[in-house]
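Re: the 297-residue chain
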Amino acid sequence: MYSKDNSIIYQNGKFINPKSATGDIYSQTLHYGNGVFEGIRAYKTNAGTKIFKAKEHYERLHYGAKVMNIPFQYTIDELIDITYKLLELNELQDAYIRPIITTGANMGLGSSDESTLIIQCWEWGKLMGDKLLKVRTSSFQRPNPKSCFVDAKVTGHYINSILARNEASASHYDEAILLDMNNNVAECSGANVFIEKDGKLFTPPKGHIMPGITRTTIIELCQEVGIPVEEKHFSLEEMKQADHAFFTGTAAEVVGLKSIDEYHFPKSWESTLGYKLMHLYKQEVLGERSKNLSKAV
């Protein structure tokens, strides 16, 4: 699924076949989860291949390396150039891109003084599909922001997401909502959440969540087209009184919810602000929004 016989990846200065990639079995990333990564999408547009918000994604990768004390010397411009070249070598325009920085050998708990950059890309549809999602409240909680850097995409953090997602699947749900340490809604296992109530959108504020780049884009689109949106804490009970809800993320893009636990959202998806924003977002990433704006709002 992720690679073919002729696929190319980038590893530490070289474009190689994935089968030629090497890794250190004593890597701190492998043993302790100290690595950082990004999820990025490229789209085929009328102006050619476009990596959506490449600068913002690679700035966040830099931030993750910095807070986790992982040495990393690539500049933002170098990373963007490498990624466009990688897409070209793989003959991909619509693609998901996964850069990851892994650490060198170190069985101690101090950060390694070495790192490896790998960038991969492959064709990947919307992570959660297009159907409305049946969601449950997870028994697992979003990590306390005093325990780690919750706003960095650290490899080890995603054990929390795997546990929540597996629990949801085992009980025949599509996804899971995690609460924060104060029992407010935080996010799902791999995306941010918005709820709609009385013609206004609400999304959890930064602090206990992964502040997604797609989330930021949706907030910017709301501000541009006059959709009321507020970043605020809200409880599970408040979510279960909402008219509708949706998730946002690079891999998921924008996807609507059908229900959470026993509560079914009463508003039809096609009449919601989330549905309008799903189309606005698609136009934004394809560079088509200005000419189609009136059709979407």
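Residues 291-297 have pLDDT under 50 and may be disordered.
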